[in-house]
Design a protein that fits this description.
By secondary structure, the protein is an all-alpha fold. 47% of the residues lie in helices and 0% in strands. It is built from 4 helices and no strands. Helix 1 crosses helix 2 and helix 2 packs across helix 3. It is elongated, with a radius of gyration of 15 Å. The two termini are 27 Å apart.
Length: 103
């Protein structure tokens, strides 16, 4: 897992988690700027867990963090959405484009 950036959204938490836990621990990567996308989506979840939409939060975070180059940042982030929580969360269109470039 270490060589991957894991730039997917914060997922897998029940909306009632705050009723059963007194805190949440995030484990950001050793690359603080790379961790911003996941931390931003976690903040959205923690701010309003009952209204949290992981994909919407991810899109807003990518747009915000990629200010000045949001399309490029979003494309980069899409290519690095690896997560053991969502093993099928792959951008197959982007992967096919990358394979075509290698050919």
């Amino acid at each position: 897992m270490r060589p991957m950036l894991h730039l997917g959204p914060y997922v897998g938490r029940d909306e009632t988690l705050a009723e059963h836990a007194s805190g949440i621990l995030l484990n950001p990567m050793e690359l603080p700027r790379a961790s911003r996308l996941g931390v931003r989506t976690a903040a959205d979840y923690l701010n309003a867990p009952h209204n949290y939409n992981a994909e919407q939060a991810w899109g807003h975070a990518a747009q915000s963090l990629g200010a000045g180059a949001s399309e490029a940042y979003t494309l980069f982030a899409r290519a690095h959405r690896f997560s053991p929580l969502l093993p099928n969360d792959r951008d197959t269109e982007l992967e096919h484009q990358l394979v075509d470039l290698e050919s």
